[in-house]
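Researcher: Going back to the complex we discussed earlier. I've cleaned up the inputs and rechecked each line, so this should be the final set. Can you rerun the prediction on the complete assembly and write out the structure?
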Amino acid sequence: MQRRLTINVPWTLAAGLFAVLATLLIWLSFPGAGDSRGLALQNGAMLRVAQDSWNDGQISSDSTEPVVFYDKKVSASKDYKTLYVTFTATSEQHNGAVNLSCWIDGNECDSYGNHVRLQWNEGADWHDNSVTQSWCIQARKGEITLGLDNEDGGGEGTGGGVAPIIHAPTPKDGVGGGVFIEHATVTIDAVNIAGCTANHWIEVGGELAPVIHGH
Amino acid sequence: MERRHTVSVPLVIVAALLAGMATVIVWLAFPGKGHSTALGGSASGTILRLAEDSWNGREMSTASDVPQVFYNNKVNTPKDYKSLLVTFSATSDQHNEGRLGISCTANGSPCDSYVSHEDDTLGSIVIGYHGGLDWHDNAVSQSWCVSNPKGVQQRILLGIDNAYGVEEGVGDSAEVFFEHGNVTIDAVNLSGCGTGGFFFEEINLLAPTHR
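Model: Rerun complete. Updated structure for the full complex:
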């Protein structure tokens, strides 16, 4: 004879129990959705939306117009407020300077503007030196585009706002007056923080002296 | 009059329901344990920092073209984390023609498929060279994306070498250095480490193309 348990519970309690069980079932079925969207996300939580590597030879340019070498659409849930793009590589320059530009949906990634000069060795052909740069973007989704250009070492740059649509002519690998990057990594993190502001930065002016508490 | 509902259920179902409730309570109370290890299935893109180590002692240096291990860490990752991102940063100088090479291996294999034209050592990347000028100090940084689809334990080794020694002989004067080093190792629930958004191809010099 089968053993049975009879529970006599208020209707509201029974409904509540079923709701909790339904939540558990959904959470188990869709863990990603469950912990990233279903419940409030912790402030500062990070989600990596891209982690890409270029290990196949050099990427180069001898154009003053940015050569697009990275293009990716990313999206994070509405809990995330910013995107943090980080580029690392090792680099050389056959005259000129390594400049990087970053766009999101065709707009500059930050108010610094394009481009950012990463390396310039006064024309010395030194192989290789590491370069890195990050951009903080006040968006949770968009098409991220990175471009490489070669600014003449003494020049003032090409200015900002160049639309990232041009594959400029490029020199042969390691030949000519171009700039080169290799062993490149790009990571894009979505971050649940209202960042990308100048908060906590201060204009240089005061001396940095150790603060001794109690004195 | 209060409405009541009588439920008559087998004991095994009651036990299962109670177990489910207990799981929810544990999950809510310890969310980190819950979604990263106890039940697997972390969200795509979740990052877990496995190591964050600093070297603030004297300079690390070598004149050898054979990588000298300066970092050795065996890391375990939950099985749903599919890649590791190893990042090294420091400040560096190179004496004379020294070329600072940093290499990375995971369980004895190079961390990625990159092959340097400046350093014959498999897995090594030249990240510091100033044409014989002894300039102290310049920041260096590099990341390696290690594919780890099964989330197996990985022993990460980092080495320092002087790439100048590969072809042109090694001398004590061609020494390379770094200091204030930091290494982070992140496990990431992404099938990353591919080219992803990267693309590059040589095109006709006279015919720029518009995408």
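Model: Worth noting: Chain B has three helices and twelve strands.
Researcher: Good, that matches what I expected from the previous run.
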